[in-house]
Amino acid sequence: MSIYTSWSHKELVMAIQQGDKVAFKFLFEQYYGPLVGYISTYTQDKQLSEDIVQHSFITLWQKRSRLSNEASPKNYLYTIAYNRYIDLLRKEKRVGGLLEDLRMENLRNRIEEDREFLEKRLFKLKKIIEGLPPRCKEILYLSRQRGLEYTEIAEKLKISPKTVEEQIRIAFKKIRKGFEDGHSFLIFIRKILNHR
User: Domain RNA polymerase sigma factor 70 region 4 type, which positions (predicted)?
Assistant: First the structure.
């Protein structure tokens, strides 16, 4: 049995203050397990809790000369460990908040870039459509903007449904040619124009 088991808190603190490593080891063996259990109730992470507790013992040893003879080493250790946990929690929230801010800023920039890219593409699409022959452009408008069926367009313009289909084909051929550099955008155009 260790001689330290019969010592009061004051005697134990005094021994540690004087650099008694055996007394410090006794303190470590007495409180390491319970302190890890205590901090784990906050962290829910045993490894992190062990790191915090080890840091707490190191801090106590480094600052042993400042220990009060009247203070309980147990209370001192628990206070150090809890404060360490709070510091890590605040740091984690700050880092997490910073990462979230950076992520959101990057997302905003990406959205802005995508919007500019899309606006340029849509402007180009509009120019291509404006450059279509009048009858071809009119048929495309009635089909894609007004939502008329080929037969309805044919009846309205007094032409055959086959002619309507041919004019739609010509329109898309010109659009595809204008966007040969952007295969994925052609898919997007088809969705916009609802190609049949």
Answer: 124-174
Q: Are residues 145 and 64 in the same domain?
A: no
Confidence check: pLDDT of 41 > 80:
yes
Q: Which residue has the tokens 């303190």?
A: 27
Question: According to the model, what pLDDT value does residue 65 have?
Answer: 82
Q: Is 0.70 topped by the overall pTM?
A: no
The residue-averaged pLDDT of 107-118 equals 61
Domain span holding position 167? 131-193
Cβ neighbours, 10 Å, residue 132: 18
| Amino acid 143: pLDDT | 81
Distance CA 76, CA 57 (A): 10
- Contact predicate 77/31, CB 8 Å: yes
The token pair that represents 62 in the structure block: 């480094």
CB 67 within 8 A of CB 16: yes
Read off the CATH number of the domain in which 37 is found.
Answer: 1.10.1740.10
pLDDT at 83: 86
Instruction: Write down the H helix ranges in 5-133.
Output: 9-17, 21-43, 46-62, 73-130
Q: Same domain, yes or no, for 137 and 89?
A: no
| Residue with tokens 């084909």, as numbered in its chain | 169
52: amino acid identity, one letter: I
